[in-house]
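Quick start: read one record
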Amino acid sequence: MTDPEKKRVSRDAVLVTARQTNEQLDLFFIDADGAVNVMWAVGTGTWSGPLELAPAGSAWSGGSLATAPQTDGQLNLFYVDNTSELGGAITVVSVVGGTWGKPVALTGRGSVSIVAPLATARQTDDQINLFYVGHDGAVNVMWVVGNGEWHAPQSITRAGIATSGAALATARQTDDQIDLFFVGPGDIVNVMWAVGKGTWNGPVGLTPGGTAPNRGALATARPTEFQLGLFYIGTNNRLAVMWAAGSGKWGKPIVFEPEAVAVGEVMHELGHAIGLKHEHQRPDSADFVEIVGGTPPNYGPAANCAPVGPYDCESIMHYPPSTTPPTLRVRDPRTCVRVGQRNGLSAGDIATADYAYGRVTTAGAALASQHRTKDQLDLAFADSFGAIAVLSVEGVGAWEGPFEVTPAGIATPGTRVAAAGQTREQVDLFFVDDDGAVSVTWVIGTGAWQPPVALTPPDTIRGGDTALVTARQPDDQLDLFFIDRHGAIHVMWVVGTGTWQPSIALRPSGTVEPRASLATANQTSDQLNLFYVDTGGAIHVMWVVGTGVWQPPVALRPSGTAEPGASLATANQTSDQLNLFYVDTGGAIHVMWVVGTGTWQPPVALTPPGTVEPGARLATVRQTSDQLNLFFIDTHGAIHVTWVVGTGTWEPPIALTPTGTAPANATLTATWQTDDQIDLFFADEHGAIHVMWVVGTGKWNAPVGL
């Protein structure tokens, strides 16, 4: 963040942060030349600065800094200046409306040691306090109400109660009580407190003598809403903690001795710190362990969370077996082993932590979108645990999930999925299960997802990753197309909420590569087209009118046009013009089209050769009623868009992201989120899913991780 050639900073320099506005974070430090500096960042933007608030020589490079908002629009930064051999003056510099003022001394020159720590606290809604230890060892406070004048320092203890330069810490113990902590004579940790605008009480010793060095560090933290913790470094160089609940008494300190806590116990607690729950609190835990007794929050179903992946008996987040209440018994020790181990993270722990922080699937994984209701959009994928998972958004709200809607291990992570509305209220998700069967899971409205059902026999598909494409033939018939393990193209269908019909081969074995792509589109209101690239690289179309018989395929492009597994995409450019997009063997994107029931027109190149990988995926969506967009990822991993308005000319592609954003062969999925917002989804090289979007004809927003 800083250039050591231009701004030297001591290794022991104090760093202090504060929020200047709701969107701006400030970072303060004193550099090696004694200048007081600020750096800042707005939102998720880059850091700016450093900017010198006080020139070189103003403060000691290892001096203390403290911040406090004086009013809603004013932030104060406090430091001790370096203007006297006898010590310094406490100085404040303030920012109002984004403009920093000049430093102002609050005390006389030499009134405090240049190494004296400073601490601030808000005693009431409009009063802030500044604390320090003077040369005489007395604890002092000075304060300001609103934007008034600072009151002169007042001693709140006798002289000699602390060492000049002693550390201070403050915290709010209750809504109207603030506490001040310091190390006093005899190396005792002390507390003082004030209630409301009342006088200061204490000091009262919290620890025995010889507990903490008088210049040792102090810090406070609130583990829970009603509990305040105080941390300090003891004279034996050990970290210690003590706490008080509400306005109650302080408990005895607990010292963290070296190796007194097993590494695995630390890992377990850090797991909680990053959001992981107990494994034995999963809803399926009863299948693996029997627990008698115990109450929340450590036992019983965990609230406001959902399990991911298979049950992990070896998780470091699992409690060990116990014969004393609450008891925990392993149902089958042969299959559920190492329960409660604390030797290290299990593979499941690592995968779950990755999942919790965005790495939910494989690089460039297939994604499928579908509106479950008018306002709710779902995005489905095969997650890193082999479960089908769903992310959801309501209107322009926040995305939620992902939630696994099938058991883990049912599918290959990242495999292709398809989504479609079987009826106006029922959404289907199609995938190939681990047995090689085409399967479906479904949901009606905002209800629960139903357990998956196999639509074909096992071993229909080889390797799990095959094209799954849906289309509506008449209004109430949903078709599902797939490629079997032998390279034959099949269709199966369902009418309304009826039973799925057995699949019928539309093309014989060897027609296409088993992992080739398929595309569908309505050429007219009653004609459905199916497109594919055969094993020789020729592009074909076959079609059906109404509920009639599928017609034999017609070659639209000769052999060698595209790679056998090349991606195809379709879209209606106008109400009667259908476009077909493909990538040729040289990495150029082409479009060909037909108007009504006319003749297909020869292809036109939309990009130069080498723009994309021959196996690159394409996606289309209508941005407005007369603008059609085509998306692709170039060979360097940048996402591009090209577009056409009406029957006009296609515009040159524009990069929407930098290079390296996504794998060159990643799947792109585009859809409408609301009436005027379109979304584009992709999975990056780490398996994290991102969305970028545009409203109307505005500018595209940068990708955001979901």
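Residues 263-273 form the longest helix (11 residues).
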